[in-house]
Structures are given as structure tokens and as C-alpha cells.
Amino acid sequence: MPIALAAAPDALPKADDLARDAALMRADNMPMVVLYSQANCSYCEQARRYLGPMAHDPAMSQRALFRQIDIDSDATLTDFGGRPGTHRSLSRAQKAQFTPTVVVLDADGRTLGEPIIGMRLADFYGQYIENAIDDARRALGAPD
Questions:
Q1: How many domains does the chain have?
Q2: CATH at 97
Q3: Is the backbone peptide bond immediately before 53 cis, with ω within 30 degrees of 0?
Q4: What DSSP designation does 113 have?
Q5: Which residues are bridge partners to 111 per DSSP?
Q6: Could you tell me which of 142, 86, 11, 144 has the C-alpha nearest to residue 94?
Q7: Distance between CA 17 and CA 39 in Å, rounded?
Q8: How far apart are the first and last CA of the chain?
Q9: Per-residue pLDDT of the chain (144 residues; tens, 9 = 90+)
Q10: Global pTM value
Q11: Range of the domain at 70
Q12: Is 29 strand, coil or helix?
């Protein structure tokens, strides 16, 4: 069995099987936070500095799943409906063209609330994300 290396504190899990993730989301009545990113995007790195620790925080990971989708990548990906594709094709289908963009999705891949586009005021960025998660959980009828 291979030894798993510890993830960097700002690493986000890359999306690979959103249909499998959707089953977990339904079972736990939670949303998914997606960072649309791309290579050589310094603002994306800044966004990961907020999202990475959230994704690895046990309390936060009970409130939402966190995934990264790279709009410029042809890495394989299974979409929410179980269809094969790539990060790039899903990004196009979701009309994600600016990075960084953070969206909160339900288990069917529908957006819950307004996307967070760009790096808004860095001092408040983490709070914007937490507010989006709280709003999404309320929309899903999940307990606080």
C-alpha cells in the first residue's frame, strides 16, 4: 500500500468524481465549495490560502465538501450526472471563465447563491466564503 503524503495546508482536493461526491453530499445534506482555478494565477494561490485550511479543518469539512476545478486542465473528471469529461469541459458547461471563482453547489451541481469572483477584499475573503456556506446550508435545510 502506498504511503500518502500529507497535503500542503493550502492544497485543495482536485475534483475527480463529482457523482461520488454528490452521493456524500446527499447523505450528509451538505453543499460543495468549488474553486475554479488555472495555472499561473497568483490570485488563485491567494484564494487557496483561505480555502485549503478550511478544507482540512474537521469542523468545516462537516459543513461542506471542498474541490478545485482547473479551467485550463484536461484532467479527467466525472460530472454530477456520472458522465465522463474533463476539468476544462465542466468549466465551460458551468460558464466558469474567470479565476479565481468560488461557487457553492448542491448535489445536482446547481449553484447556491452568488459566485465569489476574484479576490475581493483579502481581509474579508474567508468571511465571504463562510457566509456563502452558511447561506447554502440554509437553502438545503441543513442544521447549523
A1: 1
A2: 3.40.30.10
A3: no
A4: S
A5: 105
A6: 86
A7: 21
A8: 38
A9: 344 444 555 689 999 999 999 999 999 999 999 999 999 999 999 999 999 999 999 999 999 999 999 999 999 999 999 999 999 999 999 999 899 999 999 999 999 999 999 987 778 899 999 999 999 999 999 887
A10: 0.90
A11: 18-138
A12: coil
